[in-house]
Amino acid sequence: MKFFRNNSLSISFFLLFLLSLGGQVFFGLKEYNKELVQEGGEHVGLTGYLTSGHFLQSTFENWESEFLQMALLVVFTIFLMQKGSSESKDPDSEEEVDREPDPRRKNAPWPVRTGGWVLAIYKHSLTLVLLVLFAISFILHFHGSLKDENVHLALQGHPPETASEYFFDSRFWFESLQNWQSEFLSVFAIVVLSVYLRQKGSPQSKPVDAPNAETGE
């Protein structure tokens, strides 16, 4: 029970992720088969759908925007400030996150104790992993979108597009940018709204009685 208490936030969101993914697959399969039949194609089963461009494109175009948003938020909050926001460092004082790692600190992670290049990577590991996840999602989104586009072109009797041709296709960039803009808007909203609004009990909010000009959580 202690394990679930200590990890309840991540467990809850992972379960919500699995439920949402299952719903996406269920309804996505129906939608994809409807599109195929309308264009003169044949139904595909669950296995065929999970390897289809339709599933890969719709899944990874969303993951791509999420990882990009998180990576940029992590990087931008190193240098950029928003006075009064719970999502920003205080521009008028030093922050704990800026201190140099001390290998003598109690229970310091092993990369800190090891030092050298291991520590150099560890100091930026959050950003690096988020950027790698973004790159993987971007590539899989592109692959799935190209695959789906060529399925529809084949059903319409047109020749397939190559990867180099499709990289500049309006469909691919429309798919990407429609998700990116929503992620950037959501970050803008939480950064600005957390200056003036509160949620008692949430670490994403400042204390209810904190003044608007107070920066940080």
Can you give a write-up of this model?
Helices cover 65% and strands 0% of the residues. Helix 4 packs across helix 9. It is elongated, with a radius of gyration of 22 Å. The protein has helices spanning 2-6, 8-38, 46-50, 53-79, 110-114, 116-122, 125-155, 163-166, 170-196. The relative contact order is 0.13. It has 217 residues and is an all-alpha fold. The mean pLDDT is 94.
Beta-strand residue percentage: under 5%
| Euclidean distance between termini CA atoms | 29 Å
Radius of gyration: 22 Å
What's the story with the biggest beta sheet?
none
| Topology as a string of helices (H) and strands (E) | HHHHHHHHH
Give the overall silhouette: elongated
Class per helix and strand makeup: mainly alpha
Tally of separate helices: 9
**What is the percent of helical residues?**
55-70%
What's the pLDDT, averaged over the residues? Answer: 94
Strand tally: 0
Unreliable residue runs: none
Describe the secondary structure blueprint for this structure:
Elements: H1 2-6, H2 8-38, H3 46-50, H4 53-79, H5 110-114, H6 116-122, H7 125-155, H8 163-166, H9 170-196
